[in-house]
Design a protein that fits this description.
Shape of chain B: elongated
Oligomer: heterodimer
Number of domains of chain B: 2
Largest sheet of chain A: none
Number of domains of chain A: 1
Shape of chain A: globular
Structural class of chain B: alpha+beta
Strand content of chain B: 25-35%
Helix content of chain A: over 70%
Largest interface: A-B, 17 and 27 residues
Bound molecules: adenosine-5'-diphosphate, magnesium ion
Order of helices and strands of chain A: HHHHHHHHHHHH
Number of helices of chain A: 12
Radius of gyration of chain B: 25 Å
CATH topology of the largest domain in chain B: Rossmann fold
CATH architecture of the largest domain in chain B: 3-Layer(aba) Sandwich
Number of strands of chain A: 0
Radius of gyration of chain A: 22 Å
CATH architecture of chain A: Orthogonal Bundle
């Protein structure tokens, strides 16, 4: 950020308060997860890792983590493929009508997920997709598309259209241009979109509550049930693991952006 | 790069409209085998649009593009086999210099070994052998320009198209690369079509210059012909500088006429074969500043005018003077510094003279949008 003014003390104060407001609720689960008590509370006599141990040895928790992970991976593949193709298609045609398509693709982001969940419940029933791996993957994948469309569109906006023309003037076919020129240039946008799509599926609860029950029991679902049934601090431990994992992904995204900006 | 002769390009009645706006208006041009044609015009005059239509990126509203007499208008750009240097070069930022230059060969499915040899030869041609492994952003502007050139030439294109290839470079480098480009053209004997808004570049590089304004072709010809005998005021003004003198024809002879302009009587001798304008008609003359000479005491010329220096500047090689005259208004003159008999100063009185064949009649330009 060259050539911009630094923030004044007031601006800096507000920024810090906002950051704390956002971060504190997340931080509070850390001491709770380290509690030495049997119920959801702050540590009393000392910290203990036994709740982490419980989670990491429980078949139920590990099963849910694995299920969440595979669903998220599959949903990400779906979202990235569809989102990237859509963004590139709109970019290439770039007419008034494609703006409409782009808005349409953002709908899953705009519509409250509970509305979406009710809709899915109604038409997944007859299709036999309720409580199925494929059903949840479809639901998460489709609602993950907007993230990919946004990041890939942004990457494409910074793509010099003359590079495509240059490739074609040298005789490159559409698929060669796509593989050797366009995709390598927008890869950071695609990876960024993939990370967001993954995180979206990884912590999605509302739709899962509607379209899954026993067969598919994702991690957020297990936390939800756990909170409703007993106040086991294992939940806090899971939450910490969840936050840590998400943070890792976002840091990865950030590092990637850094590298492309420097590069 | 084989020594095969270039190909002939013809543009027939090319028109491109964007809605109600006409970017290119009925342009027809012929470029002979191995010729260097420059499209010259101010920004927005439609140069890039014409080049892009030749390359196949712009679909003409009307008209055709012919290569060796064959209509190629419906052919997509990737099937035309034209080399192209884009404005800003459009090098692939994620590929090394060698990968950039090898791209057209990779696209054609050539083997690694074939590719390497050709890439080396192309980099040799532009003196960049040592930079093969660099990324474009690690090169200077002039080097990037040469990579773009090597990349456009490596696949033996039938035609080389260049869109403002030198405009991003500083003046000295530009002059250097102009020389190189000219030498390259001589060496490989390909047909070049160049686009520029820089009149010096056009004059020094081209066999033929096509001058464009508001999407219309104003005049086509060799650099000397255009400079010495501009057809319209716009051409005279855009290609170099010019004084414009307007007057009424008083007396016509076989190869010239006398013009009455603001109380002065000027002798005009026509150099190109043309009919002198009839008496009484109004004529506009273009007079190049460097064709005026400072007259010493008692010296005479076909045309003479007296005036005072209003402003002047030193150009190194010469002095540029703005002289206020009684009859002809302000006249611009450029005198070679080494033989200027005066030290210019504002208010200094002097006499200027020019030969009868120094000034040439030009037409007024049609206003933009006029479709005649
Ligand atoms: N895609 C387009 N849509 C609308 N107008 C355009 C488009 N491309 C070019 N133009 C207009 O056509 C005119 C000629 O453009 P161009 O050929 O790029 O000029 P030049 O290269 O001589 O500067 C300009 O006024 C430009 O605004
Ligand atoms: Mg242009």
């Amino acid at each position: 950020m060259h050539g911009t003014y630094g923030a004044g003390p007031a601006g800096r104060g507000v920024a810090w308060i906002t950051a704390m407001y956002l971060v504190l609720p997340i931080l509070i689960v850390i001491p709770v997860a380290l509690t030495d008590q049997r119920y959801l509370s702050l540590p009393q006599e000392g910290i203990s890792f036994r709740h982490f141990a419980t989670v990491l040895t429980s078949e139920e928790w590990l099963g849910s983590i694995w299920q969440s992970f595979t669903i998220a991976v599959a949903a990400t593949v779906l979202a990235v493929t569809a989102g990237t193709l859509c963004a590139i298609g709109c970019w290439r045609i770039s007419r008034r009508s494609t703006d409409l398509i782009r808005v349409l693709m953002l709908l899953p982001l705009i519509i409250p997920s509970i509305v979406y969940a009710i809709g899915l419940y109604r038409y997944f029933g007859p299709l036999g997709l309720l409580d199925r791996f494929l059903g949840v993957v479809l639901a998460h994948g489709v609602t993950g598309i907007p993230y990919v469309v946004i990041t890939v569109s942004t990457a494409l906006a910074g793509f010099d259209p003359r590079l495509e023309q240059a490739a074609r003037s040298m005789g490159a076919s559409l698929s060669q241009t796509l593989r050797w020129v366009i995709l390598p240039r927008i890869m950071p946008g695609i990876v960024s979109g993939a990370i967001f799509a993954f995180v979206h599926s990884w912590d999605e609860l509302v739709m899962v509550l509607f379209i899954a029950s026993r067969e598919v029991f994702t991690l957020p679902r297990r936390i939800w049930d756990g909170i409703n049934e007993n106040l086991d601090p294992a939940m806090a431990a899971v939450a910490v693991l969840l936050v840590g994992f998400t943070l890792l992904l976002l840091l990865g995204d950030r590092a990637l952006r850094r590298r492309t900006e420097a590069g | 790069m084989s020594g095969a002769a270039g190909h002939a390009l013809a543009i027939r009645g090319l028109t491109k409209r964007y809605g109600a706006f006409t970017a290119v208006d009925d342009v027809s041009l012929d470029v002979a085998q191995g010729q260097f044609l420059t499209l010259l015009g101010p920004s927005g005059s439609g140069k890039t649009t014409i080049l892009m239509a030749v390359a196949g990126f712009v679909e003409p509203t009307a008209g055709a593009v012919l290569l060796d007499g064959r209509d190629i208008t419906p052919l997509p750009p990737e099937r035309r086999e034209f080399g192209m240097v884009f404005q800003g070069y459009a090098l692939f930022p994620h590929m090394s210099v060698a990968e950039n230059v090898g791209f057209p060969l990779r696209v054609r499915g050539q083997s690694r070994a074939d590719r390497d040899a050709k890439v080396r030869a192309a980099l040799d041609l532009v003196q960049l052998e040592k930079f093969a492994d660099r990324l474009p952003r690690q090169l200077s502007g002039g080097q990037q320009q040469r990579v773009a050139l090597a990349r456009a030439l490596v696949f033996d294109p039938t035609l080389l198209l260049l869109d403002e290839p030198l405009s991003a470079l500083d003046k000295k480098l530009r002059a250097e690369l102009q020389e190189e480009l000219k030498a390259l053209h001589r060496r490989i004997g390909r047909t070049f079509v160049n686009v520029t808004h820089d009149q010096e570049e056009a004059l020094s590089l081209s066999d033929t210059i096509a001058i464009l304004n508001h999407g219309k072709l104003v005049q086509v010809g060799g650099p000397t012909a255009l400079y010495e005998r501009p057809r319209t005021r716009f051409v005279a003004d855009f290609l170099g500088k010019s004084n414009f003198l307007e007057g009424t024809v008083r007396e016509s002879t076989l190869d010239g006429f006398a013009l009455e302009a603001g109380g002065a009587r000027l002798q005009v001798k026509l150099t190109a074969p043309a009919f002198p304008p009839p008496g009484g008609s109004v004529v506009l003359l273009s007079l190049r500043p460097e064709k005026l000479a400072l007259l010493a005491e008692g010296e005479t010329a076909d045309n003479m005018v007296e005036g005072t220096i209003r402003a002047w500047s030193y150009l190194g090689a010469g002095f540029s003077l703005v002289v206020a005259t009684e009859h002809l208004g302000e006249i611009r003159a450029v005198l070679p510094a080494w033989k200027a008999a005066i030290a210019p100063a504002e208010g200094l009185r002097l006499r200027l003279g020019w030969a009868a064949d120094a000034a040439v009649p030009v037409e007024e330009d049609a206003p933009p949008g006029d479709t005649t």
